[in-house]
Design a protein that fits this description.
By secondary structure, the chain is of the alpha+beta class. It has 12 helices and 6 strands. Helix 2 packs across helix 3 and helix 7 crosses helix 12. It comes from Promicromonospora citrea.
């Protein structure tokens, strides 16, 4: 077993089901969470947890590391250690992907709104249950495909409707933000690969060639939900000091949208729980 596997097993052993809000229904031969419970909490398969702990898995992605850190209730220092063991050393040349505990606490406090946490290259790292209920569960796509820019410019953005002006402003703002990010992290290989892939889109190429630099601060959109109907929201983007993360918070634009979000919070996430059980 390698050092990453040993660390994961040690962190898993120190938690009980009660620590993470799971029922403790049957006798246990050993202390700590079961692998199946860690898999459930982190949204990965039991088989992958086994391979990680036995040192038989390929390098886990930053998204998987963040999910494991959250499920295992790691401190910021332990999370940084996990990222280093997994080969995601934090350097000034790389886009930060570690989510501090303070950001997780902010997301928890915003439970009545869909919330998404992205890195500076718009890779989706973490989201709350209401985001998954409103816009679809990102875990249904491979980790490498969970990027807002890829979804937008490859025509895969789910459940979103915008006017022509709103769409134009949204895409221009995203590309200007990405241009600023590439200037801060010019040696990041993930960013270079992202930009190269996005160049397959004629729309992206046209905007990229304008060399506009800026910050994406928000957008107006309608979420077309198949159960509760259209939800008109305003997306506001909060940035974090140090970690350079983007926290996207969708707030209702009117009372009708607020009511539908409340209904989705009560009903939609119950349906998600049933499907995942």
């Amino acid at each position: 077993m390698d050092e990453l596997g040993t660390a994961l097993r040690t962190w898993r052993d120190r938690l009980t089901p009660g620590d993470v809000g799971l029922p403790h229904l049957s006798p246990r031969r050993v202390a700590g969470l079961r692998r199946s419970e860690l898999a459930q909490l982190s949204g990965i398969s039991v088989e992958y947890v086994v391979r990680l702990e036995q040192g038989r898995a390929s390098t886990p992605s930053a998204q998987v590391c963040a999910a494991l850190a959250r499920a295992l209730q790691l401190s910021d220092g332990e999370q940084a250690h996990l990222f280093r063991l997994a080969g995601h050393a934090t350097t000034p040349d790389r886009v930060p992907q570690m989510i501090p505990g303070s950001v997780h606490r902010i997301v928890e406090q915003l439970s009545t709104s869909p919330v998404l946490v992205c890195d500076a290259g718009w890779q989706m790292l973490h989201w709350n249950p209401l985001f998954a209920a409103a816009l679809g569960d990102p875990t249904r796509s491979p980790a490498g495909e969970r990027n807002v820019l890829l979804l937008q410019f490859e025509g895969r953005m789910p459940r979103i409707r915008q006017t022509a002006d709103e769409l134009d402003a949204f895409e221009r703002s995203l590309v200007a933000d990405l241009r600023a990010t590439t200037s801060r992290y010019p040696k990041d290989p993930g960013l270079r690969s992202l930009v190269a892939r996005l160049h397959d889109s004629a729309r992206f190429r046209a905007l990229w060639e304008q060399r506009t630099v800026g910050e994406h601060q928000g957008a107006t959109k309608v979420v077309e939900h198949p159960t509760v109907g259209d939800i008109a929201v305003e997306s506001n983007v909060l940035t974090t000091q140090g970690s350079d993360l983007r926290i996207v918070v969708d707030t209702p634009r009117d009372t009708e949208a607020a009511g539908r979000l409340a209904l989705l919070s009560a009903v939609g996430m119950q349906e998600m729980a049933v499907r995942s059980s």
